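Troubleshooting log. The previous structure file for this entry was overwritten by mistake, so regenerating from the original sequence record. Sequence copied from the archived sheet and checked twice against the printout by T.R.
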Amino acid sequence: MKWALVVVAVFLLIVGYAYVSTINGPITPEGRLAFVKLANPDMYPGHLHSQMLARFANESGSKSILVVHFAGSSNYRNYKEGDVEILELAFVDTQGTGAEGATNYWDSLQIALYGVPDGRYQYKTDGKVFNNLDDALDYLYGIAEKNGQEGPIPMYWHGTARKDNPMFAQGCGFPLFFDIVRKQYGIIP
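Regenerated output below.
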């Protein structure tokens, strides 16, 4: 019985820490946007996922929302859906197999534990390519601020899976989502 109380107490401490740290940070990690791709391109004004994000942003009082992707041929332009600024950020893994390649789970585990090695990822947003995440996020924070954003920006990973079972494959953008959360809040948030 005592061990059960200890486990519950540790769990509550972790959840409490995660809640407090993310509520005071620049980004609020929300989760996966979708399981299945509905249209090409992935996001554009009027797209079903875009409308859903804008509705969520309006309900939560946010003026901007961030969606992260695994970079493809798009230039990941930021755009307005109603009065909400949809911010898009994609990463290019310069040493990876691409969105359609096989997943290297050992490499994924090393990145999850130790972070992304310097210079491995490049970041695309608004047609610009950044060599580090901080510069890309600073650019997006500036756009959000111009749009009147106050408080943390809700963030989703796009999540559509090109192959395998979408319930198990984390889909588009998950590595970048995880990397941003790890960098902003540590490995536990």
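The first strand starts at residue 27 and ends at 32. Archived copy saved in two places this time.
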